[in-house]
Write a structure and sequence with these properties.
The chain has 14 helices and 21 strands. The chain has helices spanning 15-24, 38-44, 82-90, 180-191, 200-215, 228-241, 259-270, 281-288, 294-317, 328-331, 369-378, 383-386, 406-425, 478-491, and strands at residues 4-9, 28-33, 48-51, 77-80, 94-96, 105-113, 126-133, 136-139, 145-150, 157-160, 165-168, 220-223, 245-251, 274-279, 321-323, 359-361, 434-438, 443-448, 451-464, 472-473, 495-500. Helices cover 32% and strands 22% of the residues. It has three domains: 4-191, 3-Layer(aba) Sandwich (Rossmann fold), CATH 3.40.50; 200-386, 3-Layer(aba) Sandwich (Rossmann fold), CATH 3.40.50.620; 399-500, 2-Layer Sandwich (GMP Synthetase, Chain A, domain 3), CATH 3.30.300. With 513 residues, the protein is of the alpha/beta class. It is globular and about 85 Å long. The structure holds xanthosine-5'-monophosphate. Xanthosine-5'-monophosphate binds at residues 346, 390, 392-394, 434, 468, 505, 509-511. The site of xanthosine-5'-monophosphate (XMP) has 11 residues, from loops.
């Protein structure tokens, strides 16, 4: 049985970060919405519980609360920010609302720690913590001691060591908090008594055993896109069941230059499995002929993919198990608001009603992206595959603006390959979150030799971001951009101009369509 810590989600912005930090400490944790019942929590039998932050005041009518019974089930609890205030409020302390006072703190804050609190033991007596709060605790509940303070905040941390209840007003999960990870580690190991058995090596061994036990002598089919998640799922399944696994890779002709060959070569060379590549560029292009509207193009690409993929699977593999590369963030329920429902995500595929599998296998469903990458590396996937950038499901279809033709796709692939090559050579590729070329469908006048040209334009897009919800355009040095532009114009037919996209998100999106 793996020891589990529950991260109880009250809607804060750093909740996934808390969970990732806990796992980095070698402890498995799950994020559950605050609406989860106490019975369910007891069933899970967690080693500890962490209350997350949240945007509310404990006094808001709509603010998320939890039954105070949770504080007496004998499980250690750490409240962070709102979670700390909720703990204080629920146990009879005093939380002062921003309306009454203005002791709000945002950002890096000098904080003094008491060294007789286990959370801070062995750490310097003062340091920077990351604060983000309006309300504050003015009086701790009976049995609690104040264990940290700042110039403005009388209770920056509190503890009832006997009951193993701890609270911090600041955010230890954020890198700006000095020694924040050590504080979390002290809670997990010294308060909760965790042994730290969440390791990627043992994850692989356990997953292989589980897959074998579930699959027995049956077959498993997996849709392989060549992206990180499905590639790691394929490698893991191959390790567990070898040739009982069939990977179906649909090459719709809208991938990067040589991508289809690279994926096929990698998987057939490195892994034991049946590998099926469906080459269907012509079918896709004929369906897309004359279509220019972005949403219509997306719709056609999605529908065509669905048909091609399932038609192949239906007849030959429509029994046994279906596997997919769902990862943990795809299925976390949000603690925000009442409509706490699971996100639908591109990793989760809709199965046609007439295909009846024995079951679904999602071997990565408990892993964060960085854990998926660690597993991929341990399984021997090449680094460039494990660390590849996100690539949209509709492929170059959303980067060829206007009508998609074989010739225009080729133009874009060639330009994109040059960009990639130059970015790799100068070491900038690794500094970018995502970069690619776009064919905007604009023709401009130029001069080459002594002749007038009237050809296509290539746009270069490069962004840096943590989460792709917002993104900055990347400040690539001019000399690199210059080299890329020169090579594209000289080496790619039908292109006579290159521009650089300097739009952040918002107001732009990363992709152009
Ligand atoms: P946007 O353009 O929405 O892109 O700012 C954010 C991230 O999502 C990727 N993206 C997609 N991924 N199917 C996908 O699987 C899609 O239809 C799709 N559209 C955008 C995009 O590449 C970026 O990483």
């Amino acid at each position: 049985m793996k020891e589990t810590v529950i991260v109880l989600d009250f809607g804060g912005q750093y909740n996934q970060l808390i969970a990732r930090r806990v796992r980095e400490c070698g402890v498995y944790c799950e994020i559950l919405p605050y609406k989860v019942s106490l019975e369910r929590i007891k069933e899970i039998d967690p080693k500890g519980i962490i209350f997350t932050g949240g945007p509310n005041s404990v006094y808001d009518e709509s603010s998320p609360h939890y039954t105070p019974d949770i504080f007496s089930i004998g499980v250690p609890i750490l409240g962070i920010c709102y979670g700390c205030q909720l703990m204080a409020y629920s146990l009879g302390g005093t939380v002062v609302s921003a309306a009454d006072n203005s002791v709000s703190e945002y950002g890096k804050t000098e904080t003094g720690y008491s060294d007789d609190c286990v959370i801070f033991s062995g750490l310097p007596k003062s340091g920077i913590s990351w604060m983000s709060h309006r309300d504050y605790i003015s009086k701790v509940p009976d049995g609690f001691k104040v264990t940290a303070t700042t110039a403005h905040c009388p209770v920056a941390a509190m503890a009832d060591a006997e009951k193993k209840l701890y609270g911090v007003q600041f955010h230890p999960e954020v890198n700006h908090t000095e020694h924040g990870k050590e504080m979390l580690k002290s809670f997990l190991y010294d308060v909760c008594g965790c042994a730290g058995n969440w390791k990627m090596d043992s994850f692989i061994e356990d997953a292989v055993e589980q897959i074998k036990a579930q699959v027995r002598d049956r077959g498993v089919v997996l849709g392989l896109s060549g992206g990180v998640d499905s590639s790691v799922a394929a490698a893991l399944l191959s390790k567990a069941i070898g040739k009982q696994l069939t990977c179906v890779f649909v090459d719709q002709g809208l991938m990067r230059k040589n991508e289809g060959d690279y994926v096929e070569e990698t998987f057939t060379r490195l892994f034991d499995m049946n590998f099926i590549r469906i080459n269907c560029q012509d079918e896709f292009l004929s369906k897309l002929k004359g279509v220019t509207d972005p949403e219509e193009k997306r719709g056609i690409i999605g529908e065509e993919f669905y048909n091609v993929f399932w038609n192949r699977i239906r007849d030959e593999y429509g029994s046994g198990f279906f596997a997919q590369g769902t990862i943990y963030p795809d299925r976390i329920e949000s603690g925000k608001g009442d409509a706490a429902k699971i996100k639908t995500h591109h990793n989760q595929v809709e199965i046609p009603k007439d295909i009846k599998f024995e079951g679904i296998i999602e071997p990565l469903k408990d892993l964060f992206k960085d854990e998926v990458r660690a597993v991929g590396e341990k399984l021997g996937l090449p680094r460039e595959l494990v660390w590849r950038q996100p690539f949209p499901g509709p492929g170059l279809g959303v980067r060829v603006i206007g009508e998609i033709t074989a010739e225009r796709v080729k133009t874009l692939q060639e330009a994109d390959a040059i960009l990639r090559d130059e970015m790799d050579k100068c070491g900038y590729a690794e500094k970018m979150s995502q970069f690619f070329a776009v064919l905007p469908g604009v023709r401009t006048v130029g001069v080459m030799g002594d002749a007038r040209t009237y050809d296509e334009l290539i746009a270069i897009r490069a962004v840096t971001t943590d989460d792709f919800m917002t993104a900055d355009w990347a400040k690539i040095p001019y000399d690199i951009l210059g080299k890329v532009s020169n090579r594209i114009i000289n080496e790619v037919e039908h292109v006579n101009r290159v521009v650089y996209d300097i739009t952040s998100k918002p107001p732009g999106t990363v992709e152009w369509e």
